[in-house]
Fold:
Amino acid sequence: MKKLALVVGIAATLFATSASAMTVQEFLTTASRIPQNPTAMLRSDTRRLIREFEGAVRTVRAEQVAARQAGRKPATCMPERVSFSPDAILGRFNSIPANRRNISVTQAMREWMAERHPCPAS
Structure:
């Protein structure tokens, strides 16, 4: 029963994410309009980007947990605690070629975490 609830939860998360998924280009465009000063945290755009990024991290982590519970090798092996600086996020997203920036923030996170935290070979 717990597995069913987890699968339903992940499916709902993925559906919600895909319905309103922000692309990397939209993320970068929005971020470029936010001033780099202490008032940035007061802006709704900043909070929206934070929510988008945190949602992508939660989705990738949930996929990792679901794969392990299903007995599959997960695409990523992120540690329990992972921290990201705004500069690291923007640097990574800016490093994505312009012709690929139409991918979702979640997909960019999947790729980043698979590269940064790959699972050991079986």
Q: What stands out?
A: The two ends are 29 Å apart (CA to CA). The chain has one domain: 2-116. The chain has five helices and no strands. Helices lie at 2-19, 24-32, 44-69, 86-95, 105-116.
